[in-house]
Specification:
The chain is an alpha/beta fold. It contains 16 helices and 19 strands. A hairpin with a 2-residue loop joins strand 11 and strand 12. Bound molecules: flavin-adenine dinucleotide (FAD). The site of flavin-adenine dinucleotide has 37 residues, from helix 1, strand 2, strand 14 and helix 16.
């Protein structure tokens, strides 16, 4: 019998499976698609490298760094290119270079003088009531003022969550900010004090691999070997006397002592129906509005902007179709052929889901117009490709904490059944890897606890 069956072969499922396999457990990953990786897909197109989903991993992620080393990927690791000198926000219809630290906004005129004075007053704002329904926008407006929230925080939320600051729960999406306010009464003072106390501040260092983020799931899949089966869509999970039965239709049934559901939340909801209704409802309540990525390659001379940064984010008030863009060929080497540049534009999310459903040709045209306007890109791109994600990133809205508490308590009701994925500890690849490893440890504990019970029943 398989020790642990993992349903879903994205980075979360593969990382959980690899952690278990390294502990000598028999694992089986069942992936619906013909290839593993889920969101993490890197594709070479005529000498360009397109990231369909994630393009960076946070360098402070211990889980990602350990995996890179264990899988022998360190030689191909690449840090952000030397050309990444700035970050940009769109303001008054053009790209505006912004400081790396929030307080750096005080020294720029991206925000009005009134808004900058309001930011300065943050330490004087009294601590808020413990309001678990407070949105990111409410929290940040209360502490830093409306203009900072609308012109800095909301585009950041669009970049990280493909969400809206007025919809996402601050407690679920940015728990560290809430923690700073509770402990120090002020975010500014809290960050300052934490620094003095020697705490490691969140770093903005990012990395990838020469072959793109897809390098990681590909290497995990190779390492897992025959323990990965693709083209297998799981339909149902049932509890059995010895653990669980997994029904994968024509692909067959699989018995496992433990199961980790590592799919998107809406699939987890379907699989948990009939096993644990409360958990199924909790997963089903997590929205994931559609997203689309338009990847455009140009000859260098077609683009006027120096592209000397990561890319740009767009505040909602700018009324643009793009939520943001990345300067892919500046970020990492080898993303465009000699003499060319690559730019990726992001559409949709909670801000404008209808845009992410437009046909590829329309999205390419929209991206072309936006890039012409914002970075001076002229003429036809040499490469243009669109990736639609009908269900993009999970939205950590009001009640998210209650939902994840139910999902994390799943194994209390049904020992041996776990969920993992980007809707639990954060949407980033780094958060997924950390969460997957924690679930693997919980599954190992469960296997260790259940082993003597099985032996005793056999002896009888
Ligand atoms: C456009 C985009 C850009 C992003 N950019 C970044 C970034 O730069 N940095 C970053 O850190 N993060 C980024 N993210 C977020 C990050 O990529 C994802 O949160 C993460 O990859 C999710 O991994 P996962 O394994 O949890 O889920 P998924 O990747 O969704 O994997 C779930 C898997 O389950 C499989 N599955 C579904 N149903 C079944 C079934 N019935 N049976 C078997 N298998 C099934 C699916 O086919 C899929 O392979 C981005 C995401 C997107 C979409």
């Amino acid at each position: 019998m398989i020790d642990v069956a993992i349903i879903g072969g994205g980075v979360s499922g593969l990382a959980a499976a690899y952690a278990l396999q390294r502990q000598g457990r028999r694992v089986l990953v069942l992936e619906r698609q013909a290839r593993t990786g889920g969101n993490a897909v890197s594709e070479r197109i005529d000498g360009f490298l397109m990231e369909h989903g994630p393009s960076t991993v946070a360098a402070e992620s211990t889980a990602a760094c350990e995996l890179s080393q264990a899988l022998g990927l360190d030689a191909g690791k690449c840090d952000l290119g030397a050309g990444v000198r700035r970050r940009y926000l769109v303001g008054e219809g053009r790209l505006r270079g912004i400081p790396a630290h929030p307080m750096g906004f005080l020294a720029t005129n991206y925000l009005s003088l009134g808004a900058r004075l309001r930011m300065l007053a943050e330490p004087l704002v009294p601590r808020g009531a413990d309001d678990t329904r407070e949105s990111i926008a409410e929290f940040c407006t209360r502490r830093f003022g409306r203009e900072f929230t609308e012109r800095v925080i909301d585009p950041l939320v669009a970049g990280i969550y493909a969400g809206r600051a007025d919809e996402l729960s601050v407690g679920a999406a940015f728990p560290k900010l809430v923690g700073l306010e509770r402990r120090y009464g002020s975010i500014t003072i809290g960050m300052f004090r934490r620094r003095l106390e020697g705490a490691r501040m969140p770093s903005s260092r990012l990395f990838s691999w020469q072959g793109g983020i897809g390098t990681l799931p590909n290497a995990l899949t190779r390492a897992l070997g025959e323990s990965v089966r693709t083209g297998v869509a799981v339909r149902r999970i049932e509890a059995s006397a010895s653990g669980f039965m997994i029904d994968a239709g024509e692909a067959g049934s699989f018995a496992a002592r433990s199961v980790i559901v590592a799919t998107q939340p809406h699939v987890a909801a379907r699989l948990l129906e009939g096993v644990d209704e409360a958990a199924a409802d909790a997963a089903g309540g997590i929205a994931a509005p559609p997203l689309a990525v338009a990847f455009l390659g140009y000859r260098r001379e077609q683009v006027a902007h120096p592209l000397d940064g990561l890319g740009f984010l767009v505040p909602q008030g700018e009324a643009r179709s793009l939520t943001g863009a990345q300067f892919c060929s500046t970020m990492f080497p080898g993303r465009a052929p000699q003499g060319c540049v690559a730019v990726a534009g992001y559409f949709g999310g909670a801000r404008a889901p209808h845009l992410a459903r437009l046909p590829a040709a329309e999205l390419i045209e929209l991206a072309r117009q936006e890039f012409a306007d914002l970075i001076g890109a002229k003429g036809e791109p040499v490469v243009a490709r669109v990736r639609h994600w009908p269900l993009g990133l999970p939205q950590y809205r009001h009640g998210h904490g209650d939902r994840t508490a139910v999902l994390e308590g799943l194994s209390g009701n049904l020992p041996g059944l776990f969920v993992t994925g980007n809707y639990l500890a954060g949407p980033s690849v780094a958060a997924c890897l950390g969460q997957a490893q924690a679930v693997a440890v919980a599954a190992l504990d469960r296997l260790a606890q259940s082993a003597p019970a099985v032996r005793i029943s056999l002896l009888r």
